[in-house]
Specification:
Helix content is 34%, strand content 16%. It is α/β, with parallel strands linked by helices. The protein binds adenosine-5'-triphosphate (ATP) and magnesium ion.
Length: 177
């Protein structure tokens, strides 16, 4: 008998949330499972997985939407732009989830999008509620809301013990992006 799909949340301040989701994608493509990762917020930056995911096609599909980090570093976009883009990401997520084409859907950084008020908590709860029974859904990002944690089956909090950033060491190619 096929098992029901899980709702999985990777949250917390420590590093490893997105890479944990990518790890599952790598593992699951080994079984020819179909995976779709939708990256909220990250659109304007480059991450290695945007290229390496292409080698895992057609099983692994990646969609990056968003205008980069919100309100920090080089952010020149007004919040309304970020909100519009995040709404588009929700719409695409909904289409992908409802398509029934995927065994696993990953909503990367979606917890941040809620925390930054780019999308509503209800949008996310609705996505979780509407997922096909057999599909696994993975949500990443710090500040996962209690309501999301409540409905999830598996929740891991990444806890920072040490990070080179604390010593002023910048993000590293292949490790951080
Ligand atoms: P990763 O993508 O490496 O798994 P993450 O998904 O847990 O990290 P995010 O909150 O999405 O973390 O952070 C995005 C970027 O910030 C990544 O380049 C990541 O490596 C880096 N980062 C993650 N955690 C920390 C931290 N505690 N201090 C400084 N930088 C961090
Ligand atoms: Mg991340």
């Amino acid at each position: 008998m096929e098992k029901d799909g899980l709702t999985i949340v990777y949250t917390g301040k420590g590093k490893g949330k997105t890479t944990a989701a990518l790890g599952i994608a790598l593992r699951a493509t080994g079984y020819k499972k179909k995976i779709c990762m939708i990256q909220f917020i990250k659109g304007s930056w480059h991450y290695g997985e945007m290229d390496s995911s292409k080698r895992l096609e057609p099983e692994f599909e990646m969609v990056a939407i968003g205008k980069g980090f919100v309100g920090i570093i080089d952010d020149k976009s007004p919040k309304i732009d970020h909100q519009e883009v995040a709404k588009e990401a929700i719409k695409i997520s909904n289409e992908k989830i409802q398509s029934g084409k995927y065994d696993i859907v990953i909503l990367d950084e979606i917890n941040y999008a809620v925390n930054l008020n780019l999308i509503s908590l209800d949008d996310v709860l609705e996505l979780i509620k509407s997922k096909p029974q057999k599909m696994d859904l993975i949500l990443t990002g710090n500040y996962a809301k209690d309501e999301v944690i409540e409905v999830a089956d598996l929740v891991t909090e990444m806890r920072e013990i040490k990070h080179p950033f604390q010593r002023g060491i910048k993000a590293k190619e292949g490790i951080d992006f």
